[in-house]
């Protein structure tokens, strides 16, 4: 049985995601599709516009048979740890192949680069630390080190989906899963405005939504996804973005000592003092601009801010990494539920009820509750009692 595994965020689900999903199924000849999806906060340190359960329900209606949550400790992380946790979960869920979208579009350069870095691991490590010592950000330092190993290599690791894809391939090789990739179409990852009549990046769709261009944004999403966004806006008037949480972040920074901030996950090199100095900036965008340095990318700062907001320490992240990530079910189709029975026969028991996640993955459960603070009080009581969606 061919079981396709995909790693997704669907923030929100759009036509480009639908293309990737169908093309991945075709490429891997999938009989069943399993997704691992970021929960309340995402890899780039941003809040999800819809709850994890709602995004998973959309995914199931669009053709994903099982959707599991990528635990917070792996989801709000650098590419290597994000990929490692996601692929581990796909393997545990029975996936036989992982297929990802990339700017590259061909799997061969990924396989070549993965083999090159494995063969020259010590050299890559030396080059990386030399570049970091010169004051470069980690992504830039890594890209330069990788290029130095093979000046004529064809994989551009400066591209965000290529770098994620490379780590998916490395993890898949370690776990003996097939790896495949689909060429991203029409929209660039960071595009703020759409350049195509049908496909736009999630970044540009979120920009349209927060700019009150709802109808324009809906044109780039399947009906199910557009309806979920519209319903949330009608019921709550809220589409979570960082500005929504900025006052809560300010409170956390103001009431924490520099030592407490330094103990937060991803806080390093004295950045806690810059956080304190910038805390009275009028909005989140200004705050990030004030804190940013050459060594700290905007993405890494957003992840740090997420960990501050959720009060997540370095110790808690480390302890989580030492255990196998749990399978927390968010949504399932009828075909997916049949596959769940085979997982139970392998002594893997996916967590279903939202409240029971506190026992198996307290960081994710806590992050979900923090995420809900963006919404009016009247909408939270039902949101705090979530079950996996059966589609």
From TrEMBL:
Pfam families of this UniProt entry? Answer: HIGH_NTase1
The catalytic activity, as recorded, is: cytidine(34) in elongator tRNA(Met) + acetate + ATP = N(4)-acetylcytidine(34) in elongator tRNA(Met) + AMP + diphosphate
Keywords, sorted A to Z: ATP-binding, Cytoplasm, Ligase, Nucleotide-binding, RNA-binding, tRNA processing, tRNA-binding
Q: Which residues bind ATP?
A: 7-20, 101, 161, 184
- Leader sequence range is none
The EC number(s) given in the record are 6.3.4.-
Q: Where in the cell is it found?
A: Cytoplasm
**UniProt-listed PANTHER family:** TRNA(MET) CYTIDINE ACETATE LIGASE
Q: What does this protein's UniProt record list under function?
A: Catalyzes the formation of N(4)-acetylcytidine (ac(4)C) at the wobble position of elongator tRNA(Met), using acetate and ATP as substrates. First activates an acetate ion to form acetyladenylate (Ac-AMP) and then transfers the acetyl group to tRNA to form ac(4)C34.
Q: Output this protein's name.
A: tRNA(Met) cytidine acetate ligase
């Amino acid at each position: 049985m061919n079981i396709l595994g995909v790693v997704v965020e669907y923030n929100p689900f759009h036509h480009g995601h639908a293309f990737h999903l169908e093309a991945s199924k075709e490429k891997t000849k999938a009989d069943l599709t399993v997704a691992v999806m970021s929960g309340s906060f995402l890899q780039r340190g941003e809040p999800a516009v819809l709850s994890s359960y709602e995004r998973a329900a959309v995914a199931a209606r669009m053709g994903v048979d099982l959707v599991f949550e990528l635990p917070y400790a792996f989801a709000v992380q650098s590419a290597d740890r994000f990929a490692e946790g996601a692929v581990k979960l796909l393997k545990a869920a029975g996936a036989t192949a992982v297929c990802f979208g990339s700017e590259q579009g061909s799997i061969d350069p990924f396989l070549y680069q993965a083999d090159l870095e494995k063969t020259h691991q010590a050299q890559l490590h030396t080059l990386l630390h030399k570049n970091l010592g010169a004051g470069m950000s980690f992504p830039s330092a890594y890209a330069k080190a990788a290029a130095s190993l093979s000046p004529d290599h064809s994989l551009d690791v400066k591209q965000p989906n290529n770098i994620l894809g490379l780590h998916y391939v490395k993890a898949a090789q370690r776990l003996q899963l097939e790896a495949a990739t689909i060429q991203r179409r029409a929209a660039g990852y960071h595009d703020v405005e759409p350049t195509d009549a049908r496909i736009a990046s999630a970044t540009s769709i979120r920009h349209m939504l927060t700019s009150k261009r709802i109808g324009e944004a809906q044109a780039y999403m399947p009906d199910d996804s557009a309806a979920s966004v519209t319903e949330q806006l009608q019921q709550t008037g809220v589409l979570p973005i960082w500005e929504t949480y900025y006052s809560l972040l300010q409170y956390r920074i103001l009431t924490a000592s520099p030592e407490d901030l330094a103990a937060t996950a991803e806080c390093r090199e004295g950045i806690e003092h810059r956080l304190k100095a910038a805390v009275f900036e009028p909005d989140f965008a200004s705050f990030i601009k004030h804190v940013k340095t050459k060594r700290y990318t905007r993405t890494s700062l957003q992840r740090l801010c997420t960990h501050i907001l959720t009060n997540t320490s370095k110790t808690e992240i480390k302890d989580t990494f030492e255990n196998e990530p749990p399978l927390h079910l968010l949504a399932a189709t009828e075909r997916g539920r049949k596959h769940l029975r085979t997982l139970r026969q392998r002594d893997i028991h996916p967590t279903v009820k939202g409240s029971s996640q506190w026992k198996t993955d307290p960081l994710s459960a806590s992050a979900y509750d923090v995420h809900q603070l963006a919404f009016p009080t009247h909408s939270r009581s039902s949101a705090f009692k979530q079950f996996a969606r059966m589609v």
